[in-house]
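Fold it.
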Amino acid sequence: MQIFDYKKKIAEAETKLKQQQNLYEAVRSDRNLYSKNLIESQDEITEMKRKLKIMNHQIDQLKEEITAKEATLVKEHLEHQR
């Protein structure tokens, strides 16, 4: 009878071990997926920041162009009035 009990306990322990292994694999798989998604998101953020920096630079250049053209227009207008 004692051998039967030990075999039953071993079978239960093996079943529990298998369940724990399956849970571990599921968690590991999720972690890898989330890690991959995080890296992709970080790369996307970096790219968006780079594009934003370029756009801000372009905006500054356009503002400078507008200011220069306005100054030219004012100058020409004043010269034309004389």
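Helices lie at 2-81.
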